[in-house]
């Protein structure tokens, strides 16, 4: 307001100044004309009066303009101060009307980064912050849409694995069943035929294992891998796992030595799952070891735990390999694995299963000397429950292991 | 007396496999293609009742689970083994409150199957 007045004042002053200069110039011209007349000797009295009047008039003009200058200066000064104050007020208003939306943006960004995909900001205020706000909201909506798509894909993948597993299982049951049927009458087959059927059986078992591993992995990723622990006798469990492997190790001329201490304590486990772990370890030993190798499985008490050890005198592993052995899609030496079936998932799944039971699994190996896998499971704890279904955390994804 | 086993599966190949293996073990076999046929056989006046049922969990028309539920509702107490492609299906289709004698997964481990049948039909 005052600033406006100052501007108007300055404009008026400039006009008055122009008028003052015009009037002064006119006054000088009148005085000069009067002096000429005085010098010419004509109308001397009138000329003198004009000269005095003009001098007086200019004096008056100067006084007026000096007053105007002072007033204008005052006005300009006041205007300046008022202007500055106004600018400051205006600026602080600007800042506060920007600060709210910015604070809200910061807060919403934090929530979004924290995984809250519903985070949005109110769009309003200055056009700049409003634009920023709606840009943020668009970005958040896009993120949410993509996350939704990803979840949908994950669900589709899980359903696909389950369906594929179901659909493949029926024909596999037939192939395996009829091959086994042939083997029941092995003595009626020629040696070559018997070998052929053996190959069919080996490959069928491999396919079944692959299917089971993929299924476990999908379930684990979906957080659906569960165990149903019941009090279980340790000895028979280990014997059962060894028995499952007996025919395969014998076929390869490998010895399978079983040593379970008498009076082993009972363990609270899902026996199918722990058998799966033991069979998996034994299968690895069987497949990675050459013909004639010695494989052993032992079970003994160790404080409040039962320790089961599957060991072999096979090729073993180098330290850098051993380090990653429980990660997904990690497999033994490439030169060896060409002859070895498996998915590279067995040990990752075994580790998850053992940990789901509150146990631990460790591997030790000396390259060229053999390997040993130690599984330790707690003996019947106080919290023995059989209401089943503890959820397991997802398997640690391996950097290269997203190929499912 | 020979133990009679009623088997049900929608795959003819699986039925043939089951029948062959069971008959080799000395069992007498009755076969059904789905749950409806299982109910018909159980209701049949001419057919003597089986000693044990071996039902596929998932079959068209009527699943093994549904057939089991219906039979239990009718007061049939014959032992029933449910055959399923995988644990997930059993978990999903596990008939709550309906008594199942056991589960068998595919591919079938026949040693276990025979052991289960022997155990359940002994009493």
What sequence of helices (H) and strands (E) makes up the elements of chain B?
EHEHEHEHEH
Assign an overall shape of chain A: rod-shaped
Number of helices of chain A: 9
* Poorly predicted runs of chain A: 382-404
Question: What's a concise summary of this model?
Answer:
With 404 residues, chain A is of the alpha+beta class. Helix content of chain A is 63%, strand content 12%.
Structure notes:
The complex is a heterodimer of chains A (404) and B (123). By secondary structure, chain A is of the alpha+beta class. Chain A has 9 helices and 9 strands. In chain A, the strands form 3 sheets. A 5-stranded mixed beta sheet of chain A has the order 3-5-6-8-7. The longest helix of chain A has 70 residues, at 44-113. The two termini of chain A are 73 Å apart. Chain B is α/β, with parallel strands linked by helices and 123 residues long. Chain B has a single domain, classed as Rossmann fold (3-Layer(aba) Sandwich), CATH 3.40.50.2300. Chain B has 5 helices and 5 strands. In chain B, α4 (87-93) links the parallel β4 and β5. The longest helix of chain B is centred in the N-terminal third of the chain and has 13 residues, at 12-24. Chain A binds chain B through residues 162, 165-166, 169-170, 172-174, 176-178, 180-181, 184, 204, 208, 215, 219, 224, 226, and chain B through 11, 13-14, 17, 20-21, 24, 58, 85-86, 88-89, 91, 106-108, 110.
């Amino acid at each position: 307001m005052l600033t406006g007045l100052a501007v108007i004042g300055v404009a008026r002053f400039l006009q008055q100044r122009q008028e003052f200069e015009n009037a002064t110039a006119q006054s000088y011209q009148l005085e000069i004309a009067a002096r000429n007349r005085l010098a010419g000797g004509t109308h001397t009295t009138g000329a003198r009066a004009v000269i005095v009047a003009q001098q007086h008039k200019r004096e008056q003009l100067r006084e007026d303009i000096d007053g105007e200058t002072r007033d204008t200066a005052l006005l300009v000064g006041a205007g300046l101060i008022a202007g500055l104050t106004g600018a400051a007020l205006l600026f602080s208003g600007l800042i506060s009307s920007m600060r709210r939306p910015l604070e809200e943006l910061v807060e919403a960004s934090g929530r979004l980064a924290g995984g809250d995909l519903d985070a949005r900001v109110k769009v309003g205020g200055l056009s700049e912050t409003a634009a920023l706000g709606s840009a943020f909201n668009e970005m958040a909506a896009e993120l949410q849409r993509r996350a939704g798509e990803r979840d949908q894909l994950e669900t589709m993948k899980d359903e696909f694995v389950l369906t594929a597993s179901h659909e493949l299982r029926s024909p596999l049951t037939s192939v395996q069943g009829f091959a086994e049927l042939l083997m029941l009458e092995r003595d009626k087959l020629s040696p070559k035929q018997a070998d052929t059927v053996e190959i069919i059986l080996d490959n069928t078992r491999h396919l079944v294992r692959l299917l089971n591993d993929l299924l476990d992995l999908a379930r684990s990723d979906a957080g659906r891998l569960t165990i149903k622990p019941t009090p279980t006798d340790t000895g028979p469990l280990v014997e059962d796992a060894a028995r499952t492997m007996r025919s395969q190790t014998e076929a390869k001329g490998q010895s399978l030595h079983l040593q379970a201490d008498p009076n082993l304590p009972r363990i609270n486990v899902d026996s199918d799952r722990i058998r799966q772990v033991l069979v998996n370890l034994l299968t690895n030993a069987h497949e990675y070891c050459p013909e004639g190798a010695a494989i052993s499985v032992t079970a003994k008490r160790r404080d409040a735990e039962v320790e089961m050890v599957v060991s072999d005198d096979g090729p073993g592993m180098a330290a850098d390999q051993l380090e990653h052995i429980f990660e997904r899609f990690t497999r033994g030496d490439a030169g060896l694995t060409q002859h070895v079936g498996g998915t590279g998932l067995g040990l990752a799944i075994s580790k998850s299963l053992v940990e789901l039971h509150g146990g631990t699994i460790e591997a030790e190996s000396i390259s060229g000397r053999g390997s040993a896998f130690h599984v330790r499971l707690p003996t019947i704890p106080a919290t023995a429950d059989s209401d089943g279904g503890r959820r397991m955390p997802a398997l640690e994804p391996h950097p290269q292991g997203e190929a499912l | 007396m020979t133990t009679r086993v009623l088997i049900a599966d929608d795959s003819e190949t699986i039925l043939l496999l089951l029948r062959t293996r069971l008959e080799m073990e000395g069992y007498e076999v009755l076969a059904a293609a789905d749950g409806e046929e299982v109910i018909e056989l159980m209701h049949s006046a001419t057919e003597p009742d089986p000693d044990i049922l071996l039902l596929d969990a998932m079959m068209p028309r009527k699943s093994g689970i549904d057939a089991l539920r219906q039979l239990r509702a009718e007061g049939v107490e014959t032992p029933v083994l449910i055959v399923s492609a995988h644990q997930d299906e059993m978990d999903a289709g596990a008939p709550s409150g309906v008594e199942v004698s056991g589960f068998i997964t595919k591919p079938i481990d026949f040693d276990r199957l025979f052991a289960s049948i022997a155990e359940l039909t002994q009493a």
